[in-house]
């Protein structure tokens, strides 16, 4: 599917009148999950299943960190399109990472002309499903409330696990929530298609700040994301730093 067509499909293929959030439905959740969702989803907020984002940040390509600006659309359980411009005037890459009904692919070009990175197939799709799960938690908390069908399991006072639906099946994401109800980090086992052989590997991110959507829903406003989160290899594994600068719809 064309990138623009998928973007439009993800935005518009949804419920025109989302259910309003009822805080009473959090009563049976593990304490960390209830603490977080009560903080970030206001009573009566529409439980939207799609979000659009604008962001800036840095991405590590090999040993080099490069700045980027990007737009993204994400629909819970279905897919996403991430459209960045990486680098500057002299060294610039454009393209997209996407996941949709036709699978997943990535394609980036040097100055929009020369292909420099492409990928598709089952391993790419499975890895993209892990990304979808992580970003659903970070940027679409309205999709992980009980009214949206989310199932949670307790871990301890700070952590709980949510099973996030994806096109490749549910992915368990562990959230760490501080005493004030802020999302501190998230972790999961994500398929790493570049591993030898491809396999599930620790993945996650440390979240900071909080920004609000037009509905008043709080989402992760900044963070650092990468492989080997929570392990001694985290410093080498992190590859993505972001700051959200705009949200929709």
Write the layout of secondary structure elements.
Layout: H1 3-12, H2 31-40, E1 50-61, E2 64-75, E3 79-87, E4 92-100, E5 103-110, E6 114-120, H3 122-139, E7 151-154, E8 159-164, E9 171-177, E10 183-192, E11 199-208, E12 211-212, E13 218-219, E14 222-227, H4 234-237, E15 238-248
Antiparallel strand pairs: 1-2, 1-15, 2-3, 3-4, 4-5, 5-6, 7-8, 8-9, 9-10, 10-11, 11-14, 12-13, 14-15
Kindly list the characteristics that best describe this protein.
two-stranded antiparallel ribbon; outer membrane lipoprotein receptor (LolB), chain A; globular; alpha+beta; 249 residues
Structure description:
The chain is an alpha+beta fold. The chain has a single domain, classed as outer membrane lipoprotein receptor (LolB), chain A, CATH 2.50.20. Helices cover 17% and strands 46% of the residues. The protein is built from 4 helices and 15 strands. The chain has helices spanning 3-12, 31-40, 122-139, 234-237; strands spanning 50-61, 64-75, 79-87, 92-100, 103-110, 114-120, 151-154, 159-164, 171-177, 183-192, 199-208, 211-212, 218-219, 222-227, 238-248. The strands form 2 sheets. The protein has a 13-stranded antiparallel sheet, with helices on both faces. The radius of gyration is 17 Å and the shape is globular. The two termini are 23 Å apart. The model has no long low-confidence stretch (mean pLDDT 94).
């Amino acid at each position: 599917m064309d990138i623009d067509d998928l973007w439009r499909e993800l935005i518009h293929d949804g419920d025109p009148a989302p259910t309003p959030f009822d805080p009473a439905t959090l009563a049976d959740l593990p304490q960390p999950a209830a603490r977080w969702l009560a903080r970030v989803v206001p009573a009566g907020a529409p439980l939207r299943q799609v979000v659009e984002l604008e962001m800036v940040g840095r991405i590590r390509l090999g040993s080099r960190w490069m700045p980027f600006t990007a737009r993204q659309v994400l629909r819970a359980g279905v897919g996403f399109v991430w459209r960045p411009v990486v680098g500057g005037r002299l060294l610039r890459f454009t393209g997209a990472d996407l996941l949709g009904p036709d699978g997943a692919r990535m394609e980036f070009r040097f100055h929009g002309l020369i292909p420099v990175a492409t990928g598709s197939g089952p391993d790419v799709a499975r890895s993209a499903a892990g990304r979808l799960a992580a970003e659903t938690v970070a940027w679409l908390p309205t999709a992980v409330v009980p009214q949206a069908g989310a199932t949670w399991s307790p871990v301890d006072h700070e952590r709980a696990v949510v099973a996030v639906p994806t096109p490749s099946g549910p992915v368990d994401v562990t959230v760490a929530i501080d005493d004030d109800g802020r999302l501190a980090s998230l972790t999961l086992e994500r398929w790493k298609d570049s591993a030898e052989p491809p396999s599930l590997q620790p993945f996650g991110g440390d979240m900071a700040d909080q920004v609000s959507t037009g509905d008043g829903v709080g989402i992760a406003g900044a963070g650092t994301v990468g492989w080997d989160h929570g392990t001694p290899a985290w410093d080498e594994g992190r590859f993505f730093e972001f700051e959200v600068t705009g949200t929709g719809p």
